[in-house]
Amino acid sequence: MAAAAAAVIGIATPASASVQLTQYNGPDLATSIKASSTNTQNDNTQVYGCTQNNGQCANVLFTGLLADATTGTQIHITDGAGFASITDILAPQNLYNLIINPDQDFNQFMFSLQLINDGTVSVYYTLSSGGGWVLASPTSGYDQKANGNNTYLLQGDLFSAVMVSSTSPIKEYKQNSITLGSIPAPVPEPATWALMLLGFGGMGMALRRSRRRSKQTLMQIA
User: Fold this and answer.
1) Do the beta carbons of residue 170 and residue 96 sit within 8 Å?
2) Which residues pair with 177 in a beta bridge?
3) CATH code at 2-180
4) What is the 8-class DSSP label of residue 160?
5) Is 215 strand, coil or helix?
6) CB-based contact 56:103 (threshold 8 Å)
7) Are the C-beta atoms of residues 145 and 114 closer than 8 Å to each other?
8) What are the structural domain ranges in the chain?
9) Per-residue pLDDT tens digits for 77-133
10) pTM for this entry
């Protein structure tokens, strides 16, 4: 995973127009991510969380990286307010990039972030359909003040992994939740519904005409 992240900064392809990273002020997503109770290794470059979904726990691998996005840094995971909380155990803190890699694909990803200094937050993602890391729109990222708690939401496609990146050391990554599974089918717009109803009406009229002709033919034969 660290080797894959090495290419992120230089050769990430343009983001899909449907994928957007937005600042978020809404409810948690369907599936929270907690610290794992089975893969309990801690204070390492890689630690484990798990998704809590209908009593089942699926692994979520967290990888901490330095500013160059290639070198690991030791991170600590714990449950804070019911969610996995990730912090850097080193002083001075040098966690700039955090890869989140669940075992299951997901179509929404929410997290909160606190920075040590003023910085810019960006998110890279990989799609379940394959391909390399992609920088989410807006590609300029979001400016965030030191010690502020900002919440973000990524959505618009089916993802396999994400990397949260900051120009400031990350003080705490927390309150992360996801929506597992495929992308929900879009709800038709009113104009689409109207066209569908007209289509069904036309089909009904055609069937009625066909039945009348059949009856007339049978009567002539009789």
Assistant:
1) yes
2) 32, 110
3) 2.60.120
4) E
5) helix
6) no
7) no
8) 2-180, 187-222
9) 999 878 999 999 988 899 999 999 999 999 999 999 999 999 999 999 999 999 999
10) 0.78
